[in-house]
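hi!! sorry for the late reply, been swamped w classes. u asked for the two structures so here they r. pasted raw, havent cleaned anything up. first the sequence of the first protein and right below it the C-alpha cells
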Amino acid sequence: MKRIFALLLAMLLLAPGAAAAEYDPDVTINVYSWGEYIANGTDGSMDINAEFTRRTGIKVNYTTFDSNESLYSKLVGGGADYDVIVPSDYMVSRLIDEGMLLPLDYENIPNYQYIDEQFRSPGYDPEEKYSVPYTWGVVGVFYNTRYIDEVTSWESLWNDEYAGKILMFDNPRDSFAIAQFLLGQDVNTTDPEEWRAAADLLKAQKPLVQAYVMDQIFDKMESGEAWIAPYYAGDAAILVDNSEDIDFAVPKEGTNFFVDAMCVPKTASHKREAEEYINFLCEPEISGANMDYVGYSTPETAAREYLDPEVAESPLHYPDAETIASTQIFVNLPGETSKQVDQLWAEVKMGGPGESAVLVAIILGFLGVYIAIIVYKRRKRKRELA
C-alpha cells in the first residue's frame, strides 16, 4: 500500500502545472548527505532531485557519507566543494562553533514556516541561523525473530548467545551512548571516569561483535549473516518491510533522539541555489513524498498529510510520548572530552591499551629487524669494496 500511495502522490505532483523557475541551467549544486536518505524514483517513489531540476533548472550532484565523523573529516581535509550538507544535531553545533557554516538567508527559504515549533531554536543552533531540520528519529535495536524472541534492553547486545552475530555502530557517539544508557549516564557527560567506564563496557562486548558497521547493516541483517544490531528507527521500516523476520524495539533504558539538519558549508560555491534546494525539500508535498520513501520522520506536521496513513500512524516513525520522554539528545562535547572519546574509541576498536601496546611492540620489532638488515648490508658492501 505504501508504494502505491507514493506513486499516486508522485503522479499528482508531476502533473503539468507551474513552469520551472528561471535559473542558470549550467549551475550544479553538490549535495552531501547520508546513504538511502532521499527518494530516488525507485519503487514508485518520486525522484526528488530530478523533480527539483525539472522545476528550477538547477542540477544536483548527490553523494553520500556514512557517519558524521566522515563528513567532518571531509570538510576539515579541504578540497570539498559542497553546497548542501546534512549533519546530525551535535555535528551541526560543532561546525557552527568552528566557523564552518554560512548563515542562511531565510527569506530564500519561505517553506521554513512549516517546520514545527518543537524543532525551532534547537540547542544545536539556538539562534536559528545555520540550519533547517530535515528529519528526526530515535535509535533502537533490529533483531531477527528466527533467532531472538524479544529485545527489551540494550543488554541484548552483550548476550554471548549471539556471539559473532552482533553488529555495532561504527561511530563513537552512537556506540558510547548505548553503553551509557546501560550505565545510567548522561550521554553528554564531561566526567572522564564515566567515559572510561563506558569504554570498558564496549571493550567487554568486542569479542562478541561480528563487525562495526553503518549502512552495511541492511545486507547483513536481511541475509541473516547478523541477528541483532542497533540503528536508526527510520531505517526500521526498510528492514521490517523487506523481511518478515526482522523486528525493531526501543530499549527500556532509553535512547538517543536525533535531528538531521540541512546546512550550507562555508566553502559553498552556490549558496543561493543551495537555499532554493533546502526550500524545495521543506515544501510539505515534497517532504511528504520524500519521507514516505526514506522512512524517517518529518519535522513538519503539514507534510504528514501527504504520507501513507500507515506511515503517519506508525510508532516506528512517530514514537509515543513515553518513548520520547526516555530519550536524550547529543550536544557538541568540549574539546578535551571529544579528544578523550576519540582516544577511547580507538582503544575499543583496537581491543584496548594492552592489545595496542602489543601491536606497537610488534611493529617496532619488525622495524628494528629491518634497520639491522640495512646496516648489515651496508657494512658488508663496504668490506667488499675495501
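now the second protein. again sequence first, C-alpha cells right under
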Amino acid sequence: MQKSRVTRVGSLLVGLTLVAAACGSDDDEATTTDAPAETEAPADTEAPADTEAPADTEAPADTEAPADTEAPADTEAPAAGGSDGILRLGGILPETGNLAFLGPPEFAGVEAAVADVNAAGGVLGADIEWLPGDSGDNGEVANATVDRLLAEDVDGFIGAASSGVSLTVIDKITQAGKVHFSPANTSPTFTDYDDNGLYFRTAPSDVVQGAALADIMIADGAASATFLVLNDAYGTGLLEFTQGPFEAQGGVVDLAEIYDPKAENFDDVVAKAVDAGSDAIVIIGFDETSKILTGLIENGVGPADKLIYGTDGNMGNALAAAFDDPTVLAGMRGTLPGVDVDGELADFRDKLLTVDPELLDFSYSAESYDTVIIMALAATVAGSDDGVAVGAAINDVTRGGEKCTTYADCLVLAEAGTDFDYDGVSGPLEFRDEGEPTQASILILEFDETGAIVVKGAVQGSVEV
C-alpha cells in the first residue's frame, strides 16, 4: 500500500499547549502557541532537501545519507516476500556509537513488548522472534546489520535511533519488502519519503519538538538565541523547526553555527557563542555536547550564568556522567519526545527495570515498546507476517474503532474481526497515512542542583493534516 503524499511538512500546522506536570514548578505556566505554517532555515544553514530529526537523535555529518539516497520516483512497490507464519523482527539500534546511551532503554522497550506479546499467545499462533542488532552511529555498521538480518529473513526492522543512519538503510529495507519502523527518528524528511508504504515511526516529527522548544525558550524570557548545531539531518532539521517558531514569537537568532561533531576541538564554536552574547544558547548535538559545554563553562557562560538548552540527542544522564562534577549542569533545560515514566508510567518503568535493572535513561523506551505491539497487531489483522502485508495494516490499527491499550485486549478484538484502535504507552498514536503519529508529548527536562534530570512539565502537540 503506497502512502498518500498529499500532505507535506511545509503545510503542517502544529498546535502546542504547555502544561505543568505533577512535579512541575510554578515557573512553567501554561501557554498555547501555533507554529507558523512554514519556516525556513537561514540560507547558510538550510538542511539538504532529503535529510533531516531524532530527538530524535541522529548520526554525525559523515553518516548522513547522500543526496541520492531517496528512492527514485518510478520505483515499483516491492513484491510480497511470503509468509512462514513466524513474525521475525530485527534490531538496528545503537549498541555502540555516539547515541549508545539510547540503546539500553530502546532494547528494554522492545524486549518487554516481545515478552508481553508472546505471553498473550504470540502472533498467528507462534511466538515473535527477536533478532537484535547494532546500528552504530554510521551507515557502515547499520548496513552490515541489515544485510545480516535480511539473510535471516526478518519481516520488519526496528530502528535506527538516528535519522541519519536510517536514511542510509531505508531504501535497502523497504525495497526488500520489509517494514522499517523507528522508535526515535524525528526528521521531517521521512514524512514524504518514497518508502513503498513501509516506513513508520512512533516518534513525532521535529516539527512538533522544534515548536515546543521555541515555546519553552520564549516562556523562559529568552529574547535572543545562539544555536550550536550538529551538521547532520537531525541537527539542521531541528534548527529549522525551532528557529522559525522562535522568530515568529519575536525571538531573534544572533547566530546559527553548524559544526562538525568529529572536530578535534570546539574552541571556535565556543568563542562564537560567547561573542554572540545571546540570552540563550541551544545545543542540538550528541555526545560532543559535553565538550562544548565544558568550553562554555570555562568561559563563564554555563547554565549557572545563562539560559542553556539541549534536545533529545543530549538530554540524558549520559551527559551528566561526562562531568566530574555534574552539578555544573544545574539549570540546563531541554526537550525530549516521550512520556514521564517516573510519573504517569511508573508501572511501565518497573517493567523495563525487570528487563534491564541497570537502566538510567528511559528515552524512547515507550516508543520502542509500541513499535513491537503495533507490528504484532498489524500481522494479526493481515493474517500474515509478510512485510508488505504487515505494512498495509499498520496505520489502521492505531486509529478508529474500539479503544484498547494492551496487546492482549487488542488481540481479542482483532481475532473477533472488530475494528480497534490501539493507544500505546507512548501516547494515543493516531497514525496518519504517512505512517507517523499525529499527537505527541514533548517533555520539558531540567538538570537539578545535583546534576540529575527531572521532568518539569510537558508540551502536548498535534500535527493537523
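hope this helps!! also noticed smth abt the second:
Confidence is low (pLDDT under 50) at residues 1-15, 17-77.
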